[in-house]
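Narrative of activities, Objective 1.

The group set out to show that a structural description can be obtained from nothing but a protein's sequence at a throughput compatible with the screening campaign. Below is one input-output pair from the validation batch, recorded exactly as produced.
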Amino acid sequence: MAPFFQLAVRRYVVAQSFQGAKTPQFAAFLAAVRRAQEQWPQPAGTWNGDAPSWVVPPSYLEAAPEFLASVRAMSRSLCRRQTKALQAVMDRAEQLAGP
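Output recorded for this entry:
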């Protein structure tokens, strides 16, 4: 599984008060994640961007607008924080490199 995707899924599941493997939804979620992992190309050098299009069928998300909105908000927040962190690293690298 690609690192960013794996991180996003893990953070979302934890943020939503994951109740453990005994919940009724766990088996379906685990099966969906495993299917996505099976479809993911095996690394052969650098990643070229090929990946499964979805883990959860889009029709499931469309049927749960509150869930979809929360996933989108989480994704935007995560991307903003990672962009800020990357910018801070780049700013520091430029500062250390000097004029």
